[in-house]
């Protein structure tokens, strides 16, 4: 069974990528200026649209350009009924016991709709600005320990933990989660340190889409690492999505998203990625550069053009609903059971995906199951 997730743009929504008007002296000219401010009214409208469109969960991101994820989820809880909230948090800024109480409270008030997304972070400048100065390897050891302690808080009573980064004596969480045994923990990262942390502690491994072949290599690597710990994970993959009634219309839609990007934004993005410690972003940057002569097309209905100006999730599925549904099923066949979909502008994309794409994927999967059952009955 496939689940569909999306993300709330708590930095603001925009129709186009890389439209900037940075203040003099700012060092982040790649940050898109929002057409729509992330007001509470807009956030409620977006969450309700996602719920109505068939998305099971809403990612609330974290970062120095985002509104706080936990506060935002709390504000949206009473305006939604079934939508789960995937709360992004960084281990460097919240103690595991404090975070467990926060997530447990949200889970209690929403009757079991809290999910956890642990973010280690790969931009040293952003991390340093918030007071985190650990090196890459140490951050991932801390992440693994954070998740380990978090799980114990939700499932054990009165335990003591003596670790490298956290020390708890007679720890206990009074109000444990409604979900049993605990909320699902999502985590991602492309480095070997990240993969080991995920294999050892996470429930769902998240990754940004690449080509089908490269993505298979990555998921196979994580599956093998999980087997070494005698564990089985769920897998989530993230795409941008741009649809059209025809393939030509879809490509025009996708390419229009970068029509106002200035060369200095492309240059700034490339320099940022070079300084960044995120293995995933470096992989996407290389994929984009390698596909430049092909118009950034990296496979059927697969485009890396947004990576010129965007960090993180920037590979796009482009095509008619039928074409994009076929591509999603190809990735599902690799082992992905969760798809995190978004695009610019966000709310229109969520509505289009819910109206035109999710039903098409479900229909194709149902048809395939019926054909498989028919084949078995005739054997």
Q: Could you describe the 3D structure shown?
A:
The chain has 379 residues and is of the alpha/beta class. The chain has one domain: TIM Barrel, CATH 3.20.20. Helix content is 44%, strand content 16%. The chain contains 12 helices and 13 strands. It has helices spanning 40-52, 69-76, 96-109, 124-129, 136-155, 192-201, 212-228, 247-256, 263-275, 279-290, 321-332, 346-378, and strands spanning 3-7, 57-60, 84-89, 114-118, 159-162, 167-171, 185-188, 204-208, 234-243, 297-299, 302-303, 316-319, 338-342. The strands form 2 sheets. An 8-stranded parallel β-barrel has the order 1-2-3-4-7-8-9-13, surrounded by 7 helices. Strand 5 (159-162) and strand 6 (167-171) form a beta hairpin. Helix 1 (40-52) runs parallel beside helix 12 (346-378) and helix 11 (321-332) packs across helix 12 (346-378). It is globular, with a radius of gyration of 21 Å. The two termini are 25 Å apart. The mean pLDDT is 92. It comes from Paenibacillus cellulosilyticus. This is Alkanesulfonate monooxygenase. Residues 36-337 form the Luciferase-like domain.
Descriptive key words:
16% strand, single chain, alpha/beta, eight-stranded parallel β-barrel, two-stranded antiparallel sheet, TIM Barrel, 12 helices, 379 residues
